[in-house]
Amino acid sequence: MLTRVWGYDAFRGQQAEVIDTVVGGRDALVLMPTGGGKSLCYQVPALVREGTGVVISPLIALMHDQVDALEQLGVRAAFLNSTQTAEERRAVERGLLAGELDLLYLAPERLPAVAGLLDRARIALFAVDEAHCVAQWGHDFRPDYLGLTLLHERWPGIPRIALTATATAQTREEIVRNLRLEDARVFVSSFDRPNIQYRVGPKQDARRQLLELVRTEHEGEAGIVYCLSRASVERTAQWLAAQGVPALPYHAGLPAELRRHHQARFLREDGVVMVATIAFGMGIDKPDVRFVAHLDLPKSIEGYYQETGRAGRDGLPSTAWLAYGLQDVVQQRRMIEDGEGDRQRKRAQTLHLDAMLALCETVQCRRQQLLRYFGEESGPCGNCDTCLSPPESFDGTVPAQKLMSTIVRLARERGQQFGAGHLVDILLGRRTERVVRMGHDELTTFGIGTELSEAQWRGVVRQLLAQGLLQVQGGYGVLALTDAAGEVLRGQQEVRLRRETEREPSPRRPRAGAARPVLDEPQQELFQHLRAWRAATAKEQGVPAYVVFTDATLAAIAQARPGSLEELRGLSGIGAAKLERYGEAVLRAVENP
């Protein structure tokens, strides 16, 4: 079936074991990275077991594309959601009751409304996609997911499979508890995405830095740029478009129809860059996203991992790039302090942010630290910025003491608190209007920090915040010492800091355009011809290009140059339905490039 329907020769990793578990009628909890093949873990059992597989997914906007992709494979799939007319819903319901569907997609909020319908149907299994949405302390909580205990209570004899690409041990426990999966077999795959290169650079002029990344490494390739605010999304998309980059904005404040249009363009066209808040991305199945960039600091490692995981789902080399500066830290701390939630909630948010800061400031392999957060040990990866351009660390105790002494003197002698910019002016001996007016040029610490540049001092502040030696207070982002700072001031604790560079180090890597399988010149010409054929075919059918064939499959065709349907049949990603639908057209394209 795997070869006939999907065109693959073998299962990957734990897929076969998961499938056997669900086919045998047992529950399963599957933690598998984005691009690791989670969908097959419920799609294959749904075809093998008698009845219809019901998939609970929070992604109404993407259900249509998911169903289109399955129909291309010859799988009988449908969805029920609020975008359909009453007659469309009735047609799907009739197909379900008649046993004519292999898979049915539902949003979690629709489950109570269709429970009576499901009682009358033959159900093969329930699949809960994006299962981390049930975790109330997670980064992507959806209240509707708490109602999914109905699956266990109402249909106890039907196997359930819960799937997620991101879950710490705590989140995993919440999934088990809230979905009543105590007896489920748990499958935890490696969280490593070796094809993604993780890079964190000092934020100097973030948009210019982003443009350099696009132009030097990802010209004409699809990417996602994440910004913290809607206003920043709009400004960044407009600026990139003005520089000739086909960029589109996406955030919850845009009209729903415009969001759908932009999402459709991103999925269906090659080389589109989506600039978005974190409202965009969950469930995006586009395999050829070559880079994910963050212009603002993510709130947690879970969020960062999930967002960067949208790059390189096809397994080809991709970039996860983050521009990170002092203001990001101050802003995130202030958002937690001023935000909603009780003390326990804010404590959890602070711990999430601390882990993210530690990842940004590490002098060790970033991938090692990222995987360790999810409980997985590994060696240095050789494919992140700290491995490719190892940062220097130095004894930063004296600079830390100078900064802390300035904060202490202002607080004790004058009852004043200030943000980083004013403190750096004092340390650098700058007689600004404000410094002079407030008499801060008379402080004993005035001008004692000229051994470091402004950028380096901002790096010191940022790292001391990350190490928990400084804290942000109040709505104006003023800095204060934490209790832990006392030992540093007294010379009882050394402070190690990474040395700030004036420019982001250039990683030693080839252009990402070389990310595709190595093709010689004639093969590359055929590959581009096949992409053009695919784009025209997808547009004609109104489906995303990757639904027809992925880049990896087109590259395999370009390398093999098949001359018959039989030769085409043996290539990865070409199952029986696609061979029948597209085989002759592909052979014509190969023959006449």
Automatic annotation (TrEMBL):
Enzyme Commission number: 5.6.2.4
Gene3D superfamilies cross-referenced by the UniProt entry: HRDC domain (1.10.150.80), P-loop containing nucleotide triphosphate hydrolases (3.40.50.300), Winged helix-like DNA-binding domain superfamily/Winged helix DNA-binding domain (1.10.10.10)
Domain Helicase ATP-binding: 19-185
Presence of the UniProt keyword Chaperone in the record: no
Alphabetic keyword roster: ATP-binding, DNA damage, DNA recombination, DNA repair, DNA-binding, Helicase, Hydrolase, Isomerase, Metal-binding, Nucleotide-binding, Zinc
GO MF annotation terms: 3'-5' DNA helicase activity; ATP binding; DNA binding; four-way junction helicase activity; hydrolase activity; metal ion binding
Cofactor requirement: Mg(2+); Zn(2+)
Cellular component per GO, a single term: bacterial nucleoid
Compositionally biased region (Basic and acidic residues): 494-507
Residue segments, region Disordered: 494-520
SUPFAM superfamilies listed in its UniProt record: HRDC-like, P-loop containing nucleoside triphosphate hydrolases
Taxonomy, superkingdom: Bacteria
Protein name per its UniProtKB record: DNA helicase RecQ
Source organism per UniProt: Kocuria dechangensis
Lineage, uppermost ranks: Bacteria, Bacillati, Actinomycetota, Actinomycetes, Micrococcales
